[in-house]
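Internal ticket - ligand job 345, calcium ion:
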Amino acid sequence: MTGVRQPVFLDVDTGVDDAMALVYLFGSAEAELVGIASTAGNVPVRQVCRNNLALLELCGITDVPVSMGSENPLQTPLRTAEDTHGPYGLGHARLPAPTTSLTPYDAAEAWVRAAHAHPGELIGVATGPLTNLALALRADPTLPRLLRRLVIMGGAFDYRGNTTPVAEWNVSVDPESAAEVFAAWDSEVGHLPIVLGLNLTENIAMTPQLLGRLAAAAGSSWTPMSVDDDRGAASAASNPLIRVLEDAMRFYFEFHHDQGEGYLAHLHDPLAAAVALDTGLVRSRPAPVGVELTGTLTRGMTIADWSRRWGREPNALIGVDVDPAAFFDRFISRVGAFAKQLDHS
Ligand code: BDR
Ligand code: CA
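stdout (structure tokens):
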């Protein structure tokens, strides 16, 4: 692809679907990944850092700085989700310990540095709790104006939660940070964050069949996966990246199956990465958004005031419609081609 590459900064709690978001960006020629912030969430922040560094190394990428964020959310003790993402965050996949290092500055500073290095150009993507971004906004309140675009995977709009009956994981882990981030935007900023909640991302269901298409696009050998396979059965795919993604995805399939959702897995975070590069992949509507911080039953709930009863102006664009087939066509062609060129066997 020719043309100018768009600088992208990714904040993740890697995480199976965060890993899929990362490889989507690696495979996107129009994106220049200028930094990765690691946030505590699916697994503790040190493990998130290891996963990010190890994935970069697996993919032969040497020039993307990785920064460590806070060990804890702003005000609440950290909860992690090894039941969903596996003991180390990448499902059944195990990567060698990374040999590369983190930046000497932390993840909040990484946000601020990246925004100042690319004023008016940087696309931010957050697919974990918003702790780092909230700390970055405290350090530099001009940050929203420096960004070109921000895409957040978080919340659930007019839709049930996946962590409490009403709250989505990323917001639920650190509700105060989410509230601070939403409060930092208004129409004066010049752009509104695009927020993709479970109402949208649960339409993006990866299946064994789609994973087979991905392996084929990578030119990899593969064995069809099925709900009848032994749990944790290791991938025998010939491509090294496809092997890791299959081992990661199998755990995610098993988790979703145990939840009664079928032998499939929701790719929440890759949708955010894809929308960051092409906002046309979703239809969104502006609304004032707030985060419930005090409800005894509803803490972490995201509320969109569609009918403007609060009398406030919109502070977010909420994703309301997506074409999953268009997303998967793009995901498979990009990640497949990227994986293919990694295979030197
Ligand atoms: C979000 O929670 C995490 O477990 C996933 O990585 C995703 O970012 C979905 O609620
Ligand atoms: Ca995530």
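Auto-summary: The domain at 6-206+261-343 is CATH 3.90.245.10 (Inosine-uridine Nucleoside N-ribohydrolase; Chain A). The chain has 13 helices and twelve strands.
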